[in-house]
Write a structure and sequence with these properties.
Blueprint lengths: L8 H24 L6 H25 L3 H4 L5 H24 L6 H33 L2
Pfam family, one: DUF2231
InterPro entries: DUF2231_TM
Keywords: Membrane, Transmembrane, Transmembrane helix
Amino acid sequence: MLPEVVKLHPPATHFAIAMPVALLLIEALYRRMKREPDVIHEVFTHISFLSVLLASLTGFIAHEPLEERLKQVPVFSAHEILGFSLPFLFLVISAIRLFKRKDFSGMVRNVYFLLLLLGVFLIFLQGRLGGKIVYEYLIE
């Protein structure tokens, strides 16, 4: 049986997957329609950052009671590195959107889009690693 504190992490990770994917879809739709990003785009950008940060924080809290068991898991170190890195990537994405609000076009928007695409790819990889940890090593 897993400790109660560990159970905070799964709901947080679902938001950390859903929000960036929704943002990527919004960005792709706006690009397709040749529409300038609006307040909804900006709000989803910042919510995406906060959801990734929350998933990382709950992951940090959840790993402590399982630390001894997790040391034996081959993919845990990669999951841990991504867990600490993804909030910084999404902080950069959020900062670009915030500080380039008035000049969010051309090269700035392309860099934003590429970083967002990378972020969503890494989130899927992170989820895959997390799933391996849970379903192959923790659930007995």
